[in-house]
Design a protein that fits this description.
The complex is a heterodimer of chains A (497) and B (585). Chain A contains 20 helices and two strands. Chain A is mainly alpha-helical and 497 residues long. Chain A has a domain of 222 residues. A two-stranded antiparallel sheet of chain A has the order 1-2. The radius of gyration of chain A is 21 Å and the shape is globular. Chain B folds into two domains: 501 residues, no CATH class; 34 residues. A two-stranded antiparallel sheet of chain B has the order 1-2. The chains are: A mainly alpha (497), B mainly alpha (585). The interface between A and B is medium-sized, with 33 and 32 residues.
């Protein structure tokens, strides 16, 4: 099979699944689930094939000129395929989870249709080879996510949706402005082939301005403080959507965009020359601490997790901003690790809400005995966020520290340690309640029995699976094709092509 | 594959076995599972006693695992595994079958054990940190086990300080490893020796110092030990605090470079800790609290000796075997003393003199008068004298007077516990408890016979005996004087002593901390009020703005009225102005 076909097929799996799901009647539950899971598995298999192919040195590229200077251009490079792999793996689990989570609830056709569209756009973002293509899929993601955020249709959900749109659409406008400006300066914006450093030095202030515009546009989805306001609001969405927003698609798309911007548009060396990286480090450090502090003050479990995302995604930006292969490696590997850990935590929060009606942290007392597997997954995710070995978060933190020293800013280590302590301060108390406190009486707000075991198998299964993945990603980081190994290849490619 | 190639995997098996046991179903119900649980530390013990030097490389593990069994690791591994095994047997008898948290305790016990073994065997930094963190966090559940107010306080103090320590250690390790690009502890030490960075050394010293009870970071010890179940106190005090000291030996550039400033700091704080803890401990009225302070005091001595080696690297080769012996000697004897507390509270049906002698034996040894105490003291003293550190040797001798007094106080507390237990007709200790305790006595007493050190254990020559024994004699005399002068004569003094609580600085910090917390709460409330006011102001200005915009309606009407004259006027101006300004004609 030719490379182009595989590339298009990967994108098409979920892009085609969406209209089919929209056309199916609401009650065709079994068919819909089959299509959903079939598409997810197929996509995962295709991405795995491309990973293998890339390691063999094959090329996957699709190029369709639209008009002079604009083209739809897709390519599977190591960085893109890394994000694509994460998204398709987590999409599979999130789909499984969503099927069980939304059982018996209305409008599932709409939900799963947009769900597929959402992942299709994420894949498009991952595989985009120029800024134009990136922008198209980026905006498509914004629009496809809105119906998911307001899915419940409650006033709170609608309000959150409005805020979400307000933030993301204005960010999209700013991003568009930046892209157009840059295109006017530098011509077609194919990733990795721009030569911005060859422009006359008189353009440097303009380039800095454009960088700021693009950062503002991408920073909204990546939830960099002070552009993060929509994220905590959006946690009113159903748990699978939160998982999608926080770990698979939206926030990740923003962070991924920043990675592309720094490495493949401006180039890391040129960004350093322009003096942009130092500011990015400071912004990321501030976001890390601010997000953690805000998380500490939340009593709603999902809100706490949302602020924790604000803080954790900034780790990625921090890694990117530290000049040197180690910093890059840390940022990229955390792109994967944060996804695994955060999706686990949101799955668990959803399980607690579905099975026992728990939304607040002080209602978690003694749940460890009632739901041991979910609680185990939560513990794995939380300890990983703190950055304790042998979980995935430790590997990220280790390389962030190494990168900070290599980039001559050891003060970043103080930020890392402070953030770890803050993470411990807001993840350890829920764990203490889970495992060491006795259940209150009456035990839980709305206890139900959704499955034979602690809850529906499709609810605890994905949570435990991603929890174990985040354990193994750290424990066996030395294995070939582990997140660390792949991020190492990408980082190596950026510095030693 | 031949046996010699398989041998290194024994290291992995020694760590994996307790982990596996922790996951066994029906841990406290099925006989086989219980036996497996009891056998947790045995593979490690077997390795330490009989295996040759081993090295295991695990490429896929974390950032590349490297585990070692060498001559420095062997004695501590042997001592740790042995004490874990004996305390495990003791715990089996100690925990009542109806205890609801029995299985949680058993699982956490095995996890703590696995962490402890891993941190001893690890040579790569991530594995070492993993072992340290696993031990630290799993032990939280052991301290908390009883679940009453004291246990919760002890566990809180333990966790708070442990987190501070973890943070400092992480910062130190990341920074030092980043600077030198090291992945192994040996490379880390060498890198530190080359850079000689004071900040990194301080971070590592204080980070591990939380576990090793450095003065100021020690309050968790006296708070956690009395409330933890007795076998947990035994391993906490005997083995786990040694992990902090082990952390120093593994990360600080000992024997490689002279760092006088941090070395002196370590010596001063160590000696201060040794003396102050001994003084404060005398006022405790629970045996376990006295023992906890004695641990702080002994750790202070270890810290001072380590500081001396950091100050002058020539000392290190002679001191290392002595320090290893000291650590093993203190670990086993302190373990035996802690296990003895449970025996005194549940007197077995044995003659009083026999049990009494058993309780007193490790106390004498720790004071330095018997068994392993004498060679330990001698090796340290001769090492210090050879290096010209006579002052430190003298200071340590005086600290040993404090130890003797603390031991006397412990025995006194144990005696009273015993009396009370006899009055209340407490149940006698189970056979498992007795076996664990007696085992620890034998192991501690015979320590110089079986422990394999990098250097042969030397017994002091006869002429030196007085130099080693005078602190004990002085301590005993002081004790006798104190008993004669104080006992029963000054009820006020005894009443005052009864009110002193373990935890010293913790209580001092409580008041200010509570005030800080109140201030913080007030600050948060003020912030909220400020937010409220801001919102009100915003709404007000928003309203003003809207009203202002609405007011434009009037302006527009006015404009409409003004429009005609305006246009006419402009037209007139244009007609008049054009010929004036333009160069027409």
């Amino acid at each position: 099979m030719s490379g182009t076909l595989i590339l298009l097929l990967t994108l098409a799996t979920s892009l085609l699944a969406a209209p089919v799901i929209f056309l199916l009647p609401e009650r065709a539950r079994r068919t819909r689930t089959t299509i959903n899971l079939g598409a997810a598995l197929l996509k995962l298999a295709l991405v795995a094939w491309m990973v293998w192919g890339l390691a063999q040195g094959l090329e996957y590229r699709f190029h369709l000129p639209v008009m002079e200077g604009f083209s739809v251009h897709l390519v599977a490079d190591p960085l893109g395929i890394m994000f694509a792999g994460l998204s398709s793996l987590l999409w599979l689990f999130t789909t499984l989870y969503a099927v069980a989570y939304l059982e018996e609830s209305p409008n599932r056709r709409r939900f799963f249709g947009f769900f597929s569209l959402c992942v299709a756009s994420t894949l498009g973002i991952a595989l985009a080879a120029n800024l134009f293509t990136f922008l198209i899929f980026y905006e498509l993601l914004t629009l496809a996510t809105y119906p998911l955020v307001v899915h419940r249709g409650t006033p709170a959900a609608l309000a959150a949706g409005r805020i979400y749109l307000r933030y993301t659409v204005s960010a999209g406008f700013v991003l568009l402005l930046g892209v157009v400006w840059l295109q006017a300066l530098a011509g077609e914006l194919t990733f990795g082939e721009l030569r911005l450093s060859e422009l006359d030095e008189a353009y440097h202030p303009t380039l800095k301005g454009i960088f700021l515009l693009l950062m503002l546009g991408l920073g909204v989805k990546a939830a960099l403080v002070p552009l993060h306001g929509w994220l905590p609001q959006a946690m009113v969405a159903p748990a699978p959507v939160s998982a999608l927003l926080h770990a698979v698609a939206v926030v990740k798309a923003g962070a991924f965009g920043i990675v592309r911007l720094v490495y493949d548009v401006y180039g890391i060396a040129f960004s350093a020359t322009l003096g942009l990286l130092g500011w990015l480090t400071v912004a990321a450090s501030f976001t890390i601490l601010y997000g953690s502090l805000r998380a500490l003050a939340q009593s709603d479990l999902k809100r706490r997790l949302a602020f924790s995302t604000v803080s954790q995604v900034a780790y990625i930006v921090l890694g990117v901003s530290l000049f040197g292969p180690l910093g890059t490696l840390a940022g990229l590997v955390h792109l994967l690790h944060q996804g695994l850990m955060k999706v686990t935590l949101f799955f668990c929060a959803g399980n607690y809400a579905e099975e026992l009606g728990i939304h607040r942290i002080d209602e978690l007392d003694g749940v460890g005995r009632r739901m041991p597997l979910t609680s185990l997954a939560f513990t794995l995710g939380g300890l990983g966020m703190i950055g304790l070995p042998p979980l995935a978060g430790f590997i990220s933190k280790w390389y962030l520290g190494m990168g900070a020293v290599a980039a001559d800013s050891p003060w970043v280590i103080a930020v890392l340690v402070a953030s770890s302590l803050l993470n411990a301060a807001y993840f350890l108390p829920p764990m203490y309640r889970l495992w060491f406190k006795a259940a209150a009486d009456p035990a839980w707000p709305q206890a139900r029995r959704l499955g034979r075991f602690e809850t529906h198998a499709w609810l605890w299964g994905p949570a435990l699976a991603t929890g174990l993945f985040s354990l193994l990603a750290g424990l066996l980081a030395g294995l070939p094709y582990s997140p660390l190994d792949w991020a190492g290849r990408v980082a190596g490619g950026e510095y030693f092509p | 594959m031949s046996l010699t190639m398989l041998m290194p995997w024994g290291l992995a098996a020694a760590v994996a076995w307790p982990l596996l046991v922790a996951a066994l179903p029906g841990l406290c119900e099925r006989r086989l599972a219980t036996l497996a649980w009891l056998s947790g530390p045995l593979p490690a013990l077997a390795l330490a006693l009989w295996a040759p030097a081993l090295e295991l490389g695990l490429e896929a593990w974390l950032l590349g695992g490297q585990w070692l069994l060498d001559e420095t690791r062997r004695p501590l591994l042997a001592m740790s595994a042995l004490l874990w095994a004996l305390a495990g047997g003791y715990a089996w008898g100690y925990l009542a079958p109806e205890d609801p948290h029995r299985s949680r305790f058993a699982r956490l016990w095995s996890l703590t054990l696995a962490g402890n073994l891993l941190l001893l065997l690890a040579e790569d930094i991530p594995s070492f940190y993993l072992g340290f963190a696993l031990m630290t966090f799993a032990a939280f559940g052991l301290v908390l086990h009883q679940g009453d107010e004291g246990a919760r306080r002890g566990a809180r103090a333990y966790l708070l300080l442990a987190l501070v320590g973890e943070g400092l250690i992480l910062a130190g390790l990341l920074w030092a490893a980043g600077e030198s690009g090291a992945l192994t502890l040996t490379a880390l030490r060498q890198g530190l020796a080359e850079s000689g960075s004071l900040a990194m050394v301080l971070l590592l010293w204080l980070g591990f110092g939380v576990k090793a009870g450095v003065l100021g970071l020690h309050p968790w010890l006296p708070l956690a030990h009395p409330v933890a179940p007795t076998p947990a106190s035994a391993v906490l005090s005997g083995v786990m605090v040694k992990a902090g000291v082990w952390g120093w030996w593994q990360t600080l550039p000992l024997g490689l470079v002279a760092l006088p400033l941090p070395g002196n700091l370590m010596i001063v704080l160590g000696l201060l800790g040794a003396f102050l803890a001994a003084l404060y401990g005398l006022f405790m009225s629970q045996a376990k609290a006295v023992l906890a302070y004695s641990t702080v005091s002994q750790l202070g001595m270890l810290a001072a000796l380590t500081g001396a080696a950091l100050h002058s690297p020539d000392l290190w080769p002679a001191l290392l075997p002595a320090l290893l012996l000291f650590a093993a000697h203190h670990g086993l004897n302190k373990g035996a003393l802690f296990l003895g507390v449970g025996i005194a509270q549940h007197p077995p049906r044995l003659p009083f003199w026999l049990v009494g002698a058993g309780l007193a034996l490790p106390a004498w040894a720790l004071a330095g008068a018997l068994a392993s105490g004498l060679p330990t003291k001698w090796m340290i003293k001769s090492g210090l004298y050879d290096g010209g550190w006579t002052g430190l040797a003298l200071a340590l001798s005086w600290a040993a007077v404090g130890t003797t007094l603390l031991m006397a106080r412990t025995l006194w507390c144990l005696y009273r516990d015993w009396q009370q237990a006899v009055e209340e007709e407490a149940e006698p200790a189970s056979r498992a408890m007795l076996a664990g305790w007696l085992g620890s006595l034998v192991a501690a007493t015979l320590l110089p016979v079986w422990l394999v050190l990098p250097e042969a254990i030397r017994l002091p020559p006869w002429v030196e005996l007085w130099g080693l024994l005078w602190p004990v004699v002085l301590g005993v005399i002081l004790t006798l004087v104190a008993i004669q002068q104080l006992l029963g004569r000054h009820p006020a003094v005894e009443a005052a002593m009864a009110t002193w609580r373990p935890g010293d600085l913790w209580w001092l910090a409580q008041g200010p901390l509570r005030r800080r917390r109140d201030e913080l709460n007030r600050g948060v409330a003020a912030l909220r009020r400020y937010n409220e006011r801001w919102r009100e102001a915003r709404q007000y200005w928003n309203g003003r703005l809207m009203r202002g915009l609405d007011g434009l309606e009037g302006v527009e009407t006015l404009l409409r009225w003004l429009l005609l004259p305006l246009i006419l006027g402009m037209g007139a101006l244009l007609i008049w102005g054009l010929p004036v300004t333009l160069p027409l004609g």
